[in-house]
Structure formats: structure tokens, C-alpha cells
Design brief:
mainly beta, disordered N terminus, Thiol Ester Dehydrase, Chain A, five-stranded mixed β-barrel, six-stranded antiparallel beta sheet, 3 domains, OB fold (Dihydrolipoamide Acetyltransferase, E2P), 4 helices, flat
């Protein structure tokens, strides 16, 4: 029995192509891979220095590797990995042939199941987990491809790493020439990019919805942390609760964005790293004062800014001088 797509022959061809792409789901993207170096103290030290992470758990005779280094031990470098499968290359080739010749990484998720220690030899396998229907983005239209890598030590699963890319056909550039005639009604303002909400930060966005700025607090050592993380970067505990910020802060550092111009943003505007009264810092917009009046040390106060019909964001308002 043959199904007929509502849109006719064009939709049927698209459906057939999607089925061809999704036939790759479950096929290997990499097999029997091995890290090029064992987990080692030098790499851990470099990582921690770059990240500014002085957690004592990452040094000394009982050191573990920072969990977020999970992917670092599997990376191929310039010489590549022999573990990469032909199926993944074939999938990307099909997308190239359909005009989806550009690629951008969109997001990744990691799950940590076992600490990695200096001397561990990492092995890994990867599978093509999901190919999305064709999606249209501002960059162009194409398909999201998600791979899942299972990382093991001595056969024991140490963690998983999901990595998602968009293979897309670039959107056509706007034609040169005079601007189009003014529309009869005011055009709808472009919406701001949506934040990525996942299981690690859902509580933060729930707080924003209720006009509360919530900071994670470790249930073991009471260290506050922001942005939200799965575990404490001071004692590695996975248990946490929250405290509500009082709303007072000062500008710790800032930049003024002049270009490039993005839809839904009106440059120039100030983007600041503010230090909350509780001691943590966050990146935010500064409202209430001109962009060129923002200074390091400027006191600011929390407010919630509605940027479109379904998105509200925490920002900080400075007081204009009288």
C-alpha cells in the first residue's frame, strides 16, 4: 500500500528523502575507537587553568578528571580517527547532494556515570541517534543530525556524549537594489533567539517565569554557583537547592555591541558581567541608562524584561544620573 502525501509529488519526494535519511538511525558513526592518550595529569592541569577551576578534586594522588572533559579524551585532532564509520560519511554525503552543504554545531549533552582518573584508557563507540525532518532556520533549511557517543573504561560505561549538528542549504542572500516599498502595516519585529532549556537549567527558567532569579546552592558545602550546573565545582556533590537573589548587583565588566547587527537587537547596546550581592556573576543586558553611561562598578538592580509575547528575561537596570 502506498501513501500519498497531501502536498503532492514534491511532498512525496521530500518524504522519501527523509525516510532515506532516517534509515541511518541506529547505524554506527564510530566503532571501537580509542583515545589517543590515556587520561593524564597534564591535560587535566591545562583544562583547569583554562577554565579557572581550582577544585582540589582534580589534583593530588587521588585526582579525577573534570567530568566536562569527557569529550576531550576522544577527540581525534588533525590526524583524525580510524574509528569513524562509512555510514556517517554516507549520510553527510546524501545531505551534501541535496544541497545541504553547510554545517553548524548546535548543542551537546553529556551524562557522567563514572569518574575518569589519570592512567585510564578511554574507548568509545558512536551511533547515529536521530535525523530530524527538514527544518527552516535563519541560516537556511536542512536537517539536524544527532550522534550519541558511549565512552568506556575497561568495558565499563563512563559517560555519554550527544552532539547535534545542522546540515543545511544556506539561505539565499537578499537581492541588491532599492529597498522594497513600505508595507501597508507595520512589520512584525523579529523574535530574539530562544534559550536552550534542558534538565540542568529548567529550574532557573521556572524561576524567571515567576519573576525570581534563582541561584544554585550546593547542599553539601553551601557553595553558590551560576550558571546552573549538574554538580558542585567546589566539592563535586550532585545535591543542590536554590536561593533567591535579592536583586542588587554591580557591573563587574562590560562590552558595547556595535556590529554585526542581529534581528531583534538594536545596536549599540551594553552587555555586562554583573556581580550579584550574593557573590556570583552573570551576563546580562543593562537597561535604564544609555549604553555609553555604563561603567565598571555601576550599581544595578534586577528587573524582568518582556522581549516578545512568550519570552521574558532577567536584566539589570542602572539609574540615570539626575
Amino acid at each position: 500500500m502506498t501513501a500519498t502525501a497531501p502536498g503532492g509529488a514534491e511532498d512525496t519526494a521530500a518524504d522519501r528523502f527523509l525516510a532515506q535519511l532516517q534509515a541511518f538511525e541506529g547505524r554506527p558513526a564510530a566503532t571501537t575507537g580509542q583515545g589517543k592518550d590515556p587520561v593524564n595529569e597534564a591535560m587535566i592541569r591545562h583544562w583547569c587553568e583554562a577554565m579557572g577551576d581550582a577544585n582540589p578534586a582534580y589534583t593530588g594522588p587521588d585526582a579525577i578528571a573534570p567530568p566536562t572533559m569527557l569529550q576531550a579524551w576522544t577527540m581525534a585532532g588533525l590526524s583524525g580517527h580510524s574509528a569513524r564509520s562509512g555510514a556517517y560519511d554516507e549520510l553527510l554525503g546524501l545531505l551534501d547532494g541535496a544541497g545541504c552543504t553547510s554545517v553548524v554545531a548546535t548543542d551537546c549533552e553529556q551524562e557522567y556515570l563514572r569518574p575518569l582518573r589519570p592512567g585510564d584508557t578511554v574507548t568509545f563507540d558512536a551511533v547515529i541517534e536521530c535525523v530530524s525532518p527538514r527544518k527552516t532556520t535563519r541560516l537556511g533549511s536542512g536537517h539536524f543530525v544527532t550522534t550519541r557517543m558511549d565512552i568506556r573504561v575497561g568495558g565499563e560505561l563512563a559517560g555519554t556524549h550527544r552532539f547535534r549538528i545542522l546540515k543545511y542549504a544556506p539561505a539565499a542572500p537578499r537581492p541588491a537594489g532599492p529597498p522594497p516599498a513600505a508595507p501597508s502595516r507595520r512589520p512584525e519585529r523579529p523574535r530574539r533567539p530562544r534559550p536552550v532549556v534542558n534538565r540542568d537549567n529548567q529550574g532557573f527558567w521556572d524561576g524567571v517565569r515567576d519573576h525570581r532569579l534563582l541561584i544554585q546552592r550546593c547542599a553539601s558545602c553551601a557553595t553558590l554557583r551560576f550558571p546552573w550546573l549538574p554538580g558542585c565545582n567546589a566539592c563535586a556533590s550532585l545535591d543542590w537547592d536554590t536561593v533567591e537573589a535579592c536583586g542588587e548587583a554591580t557591573v563587574f565588566s562590560y562590552v558595547v555591541m556595535h556590529h554585526p547587527s542581529f534581528p531583534a537587537f538594536d545596536p549599540p547596546y551594553a552587555v555586562a558581567l554583573v556581580e550579584l550581592a550574593e557573590g556570583v556573576r552573570m551576563i546580562t543586558n543593562i537597561t535604564g541608562v544609555p549604553y555609553d553611561a555604563v561603567r565598571i562598578g555601576t550599581p544595578v538592580r534586577l528587573e524582568f524584561l518582556r522581549v516578545d509575547e512568550d519570552q521574558e528575561l532577567p536584566v539589570f537596570r542602572g539609574e540615570a544620573e539626575g
